[in-house]
Design a protein that fits this description.
alpha+beta, 19% strand, 3 helices, 2 strands, globular, 68 residues, two-stranded antiparallel sheet
Length: 68
């Protein structure tokens, strides 16, 4: 998959009106073919403060307290 195809697919995921979990899942399915990783931390942040506003991990057991 070429660079522009990955960009195009990522743009479609980000702009599809999906819920946050579906967006994270979409990126988690798209990116391993381009970037090798065993565990990913997907997060959002407030651009004004830089503070995290949500976080989830893939490739590791779900631990909401640890993710927070």
């Amino acid at each position: 998959m070429g660079h522009t195809e990955v960009e195009s697919r990522a743009w479609r995921i980000a702009h599809a009106g999906l819920g946050l979990d579906a967006i994270f899942t979409g990126f988690d399915q798209l990116l391993p073919s381009q970037v090798a990783y065993a565990i990913a931390s997907w997060l959002t942040h407030d651009p004004a403060t830089g503070l995290f506003t949500s976080c989830t991990m893939s490739g590791a057991p779900k631990e909401p307290a640890a993710e927070a």
